[in-house]
Design a protein that fits this description.
Order of helices and strands: EEEEEEHHH
Distance between the termini: 183 Å
Strand content: 5-15%
Helix content: 55-70%
């Protein structure tokens, strides 16, 4: 095994000196050396190295010197190799630093991309939430549209029913107006006939009481008045029936749309009441005579 050693010389008692090798380092591999303990090996007698010189000593397994070499050239080679290794190490350090910077940049880039992915994921979640909201609004709009269509159909049905009710009311109103006209004509005829009855009564009073019996004349007048009363009652009954039918129809229509006035019916009622009062006064007049 090859060792790096320092030449030492010790003076003998009888004069002269003895050379020794102080081992400094041991070669483990081609470019690998390690320090050793302060071991001293006797140098061969023919050793010509001065004290303090550095030599390479090749020792056998029994620790005997096999050869001795000048360490100068070897040290130069070792130093050159060390310098190259140092340069290589420095270059590797620079590469390592570049790798560190590259890894730092890549780490920052990965962090940036991760943040972008998180932001995009949040945007995607917001978009999904907005889509769900739009879907809910779409369902609400569809439900509202269905309700509008239902209300339109219901409105159409009610409009048709209302138009039918108005047609029926107009028919009843026309019949009622016809009955009103007939009642007004009957009332006017009754007034004329009452005037005629008064004239007849005047003639009866002015005539000779022995010519025509007064009881027979009064009975004839009462019979005539009774017939007229029956006509008035019948007309009034028909008018009352028409009024009830019209009121029933009107109440059905009022549930959908405003009320209808019955102002046309009141003049007829007043005329009928006036005719009854006239007949009653004529009867009282006849009975008093």
């Amino acid at each position: 095994m090859l060792y790096l050693a320092e030449v030492q010389k010790k003076t003998r008692a009888f004069g002269g000196s003895k050379a020794e090798f102080k081992l400094l380092a041991c070669q483990r591999a081609e470019n690998s050396w390690s320090a050793v303990g302060e071991e001293v090996i006797p140098a061969p007698d023919d050793s010509q190295y001065n004290s303090g010189a550095l030599v390479l000593v090749d020792l056998s397994g029994s620790r005997s010197v096999q050869r001795v070499l000048d360490a100068g050239k070897q040290l130069v080679v070792i130093l050159q190799n060390f310098s190259r290794l140092q340069d290589k190490f420095k270059s590797q350090e620079e590469e390592i630093e570049q790798w560190k910077q590259s890894l730092t940049y890549q780490s920052q880039e990965l962090n940036r991309r991760e943040m972008e992915m998180e932001a995009r994921q949040e945007e995607l979640q917001d978009a999904e939430a907005a889509l769900e909201k739009l879907e809910a609004q779409k369902q609400e709009v569809e439900a509202a549209q269905t309700e509008v269509e239902r209300l339109q159909e219901e409105f159409s049905r009610k409009s048709e029913a209302l138009e039918g009710g108005w047609a029926q009311l107009n028919g009843e109103r026309r019949r009622f107006e016809e009955q009103v006209g007939e009642a007004q004509q009957s009332a006017s005829l009754d007034a004329e006939q009452a005037q005629r009855i008064q004239e007849l009564l005047g003639q009866i009073v002015s005539q000779d009481s022995h010519a025509v019996p007064i009881d027979a004349a009064l009975e004839q007048v009462n019979l005539f008045l009774g017939q007229q009363q029956e006509v008035l009652d019948r007309c009034w009954g028909e008018l009352e029936q028409q009024r009830q039918v019209a009121q029933q129809t009107q109440s059905e229509i009022d549930q959908e749309q405003g009320a209808v006035s019955w102002e046309e019916w009141y003049p007829v009622r007043d005329a009928w009441l006036k005719a009854q009062a006239t007949l009653a006064s004529e009867r009282e007049l006849l009975q008093s005579k």
